[in-house]
Amino acid sequence: KSLSSPLTMSESLFSMLMRVRPGNFAEQIVYEDDKVMAFLDKFPQVDGHTLVVPKEQVEKVHELSAETASAVGCALSKVAARVVAATGCADYNVIINNGKIAGQEVPHVHFHIIPRREGDYTSSWAKSIEENRASSNPRPDKLPDEGAFTGKLATIRDAIRA
């Protein structure tokens, strides 16, 4: 799809990404059905950090239709199992921020699946991110803007897609 369909005033970034699929966005997609899309986070906290996003555009989880909420729940379970298998991490966080005050950056419901490794988590999520960046397990680079994914990134993405 081309970039000739820009973000509209009433459209969230995620709605635009799912509609237009700009650049190499298709490389990030790991799951899709008629109600939900999951894709690798462009700015991952750890390898395998995945977003699960309903195609229905609402800001907060309580605003989802019952049908979409059900589809999101099913997709979360499927994608989380794939992230576990792909990363070898048995444990993970599923995080959602509802509204700007709660830390939501894109006003469109989305769930983060963040695989966790021994020693990279503390009781404070924000604190654990900062500590992880300074540790021997640094935050991964931003995903590439162009071209096909290669190496470790492609391996993890393909394993989550499987």
Structure description:
The structure is a single chain. By secondary structure, the protein is of the alpha+beta class. It has one domain: HIT-like (HIT family, subunit A). Helices cover 34% and strands 15% of the residues. The protein is built from 5 helices and 5 strands, in the order ααβββαββαα. Strands 1-2-3-5-4 form a 5-stranded antiparallel sheet. The two termini are 24 Å apart. The active site is at 110 (tele-amp-histidine intermediate). InterPro entries: Histidine_triad_CS (IPR019808), Histidine_triad_HIT (IPR001310), HIT-like (IPR011146), HIT-like_sf (IPR036265).
List keywords for this structure.
single chain, 162 residues, alpha+beta, HIT family, subunit A, five-stranded antiparallel β-sheet, 5 helices, 5 strands, 34% helix
